[in-house]
Design a protein that fits this description.
The protein is an all-alpha fold and about 90 residues long. The chain has one domain (about 1-85). The protein has 4 helices and no strands. The radius of gyration is 17 Å and the shape is extended. The protein starts with a helix and ends in a 7-residue tail after the last helix.
């Protein structure tokens, strides 16, 4: 929609990375469409908060991406430890 409506043609910088955010939302919601709604609102708020973080705290926008990556890693680690039990055998 961005390419066809706002930009009008495909450019290399047309996508701001929404696909990667959608992958994190799908993992967070467990592929449940009803749980994807609050997860997407949460990540949308996080992206909007990125602008506020930039202006008030003088942090780069990459700080929001670090928050997203941390959430994604915690989801992956949680799934790993839920599925695989680590046992120490002596």
């Amino acid at each position: 929609m961005i390419v066809s409506g706002i930009i009008g043609r495909l450019r290399p910088g047309a996508s701001p990375g929404y696909g990667y955010t959608a992958i994190i939302i799908a993992f967070l919601s467990g592929l449940n469409p009803w749980l994807a709604l609050p997860a997407s609102v949460f990540f949308g708020g996080l992206l909007v908060a990125g602008d506020v973080i930039q202006s008030t705290l003088n942090l780069p926008f990459a700080a929001v991406q670090i928050f997203q990556a941390t959430i994604f890693l915690m989801i992956i680690l949680g799934e790993f430890f839920k599925r695989y039990r680590v046992k120490v055998v002596r």
